[in-house]
Kelch-like protein 17 (Marmota monax), 174 residues
Amino acid sequence: MSTRRRYVRVATLDGNLYAVGGYDSSSHLATVEKYEPQVNAWTPVASMLSRRSSAGVAVLEGALYVAGGNDGTSCLNSVERYSPKAGAWESVAPMNIRRSTHDLVAMDGWLYAVGGNDGSSSLNSIEKYNPRTNKWVAASCMFTRRSSVGVAVLELLNFPPPSSPTLSVSSTSL
């Protein structure tokens, strides 16, 4: 990378790795870099609309989303979407709760913002985003408040015996 970053968030999209925002020891960053393994090179892409570190980052339906984070003054609830085809960021609906040090995960056509910190305390809340309606709604809560949380989606594949005509696929919902 050409920019030193901590509290950076990363995601893969179209076979490339994106390093989004972060903090360079003097300021919070809006810059984004893309690593292309085919050419073993980092290149800058369009900067986000807001500076942010410790944000949530996920990929949904061919777009890179960044939600929340910290701009050096406060926790954010703003959300942006990057289109690699257009090479540009756009604002989408903000989360209902300001949060940083949370995780963002895509599952079943939704984005889930899980836990984090609102600037005062750790959160146990989860909210989900529907890209078709451009709205965030509250989802279930965790039993324990968590910040600097990591979230993953595990899809369980149940392979039937060769004589069985069906394949069962399930995912555990939040």
Observations:
- Residues 164-174 have pLDDT under 50 and may be disordered.
